[in-house]
Known about the structure:
It is built from 10 helices and 8 strands. By secondary structure, the chain is an alpha/beta fold.
Amino acid sequence: MAKLQDLFTQARRAQNSGGMGFLGKNKPNTKARSAALVVEFPKFSAGSAEAVLKAGADGLLFDWDGKASLDALAEDIKAAASSATTLVVGLNVTGGWDKLDREQMLNLTELGINYIILPFNAPARLLGIETKELEKVITVPMRQGEIYPLYIRNLVALDGISAVLLDFDLSSKIGSLTIEDILDYRAVREAVRFPAFLPVTGNLNEADAYTINTLGVQALILSASDDEEATRTQVKALRELLEKTYHDDKEKDAPSLPGTGRKQSLPQ
């Protein structure tokens, strides 16, 4: 039941390509990043999932309304798993609640799905279904009002939640947020002390990335476009940006030492 935790923590650890055997030799070097990168697919598309993993994505997320067959998804996950040694896959459930019972949720784990994302209007009974191999993520919307952070804090009292998805609708204004603006969002973030996902667009810049860091999120979700090459390009660019902001922050937090070439004045 630690797949999500693995997704979040591995992003902040550099990994070398060293290793024995065929798989070890082909494993790419990865730099530490400020957050994991998950690519969301609104519809199942054979081959696309494997392509974004090779481009640098850390995890996959598929949308499901309860109507589409999951057989094609199983094939996608199987193919993608061949190119990722630690693949973490989620299912964003937007409907079909009557089809989600304990048996069906166990079937999802057999397909290779590690977690599901549920909105506020999903039946509360789903949190009570114990499925050790299938973690649950709750979507948390942003609402105005001073009492909202107090209200949403009650989420921590519910069992069965492993993480949250912050539905803050920040895609077009992240970098322009003021300190006062960010305090409103941060109040909600502090109220729900779970690891958090945040949806983003593929055109983030450095200002956006540094603002995102102030929210304290563990993973970003990028929605795949119909153009597979465009999605791969966005994944690569976001990956590099997350690496840069992480290392910039590490340098900023590092203790400063006296320069070896400077003459130090002695106290009088």
